[in-house]
Amino acid sequence: MSAVLMQQGNPSPQGPWSDQGPGGRPGDGGGNWPRYPRLYEAVPDSGPTAGGNTVLLTGVGLDGTTQVTFDGVPVTIVTQDPSGGSVTVIAPPHAAGTVPVVATTPRGATNAVSYTYLVATPSGPTVSALVPSSGSTAGGTAFAILGTNLIGATVTFNGVPATGVFVNATGTVLTGTTPPGAAGNVPVVVTTPSGSATVPGGYTYTAPPPTAATITPASGSTAGGTGFVISGANLQGASVTFNGVAATGVSVNAAGTVLVGLTPAGAVGNVPVVVTTPSGTATVPGGYTYTLPPLPVATAIVPASGSTAGGTGFVISGANLQGASVTFNGVAATGVSVNAAGTVLVGLTPAGAVGNVPVVVTTPSGTATVPGGYTYV
Question: Which residues pair with 127 in a beta bridge?
Answer without folding.
Answer: 147
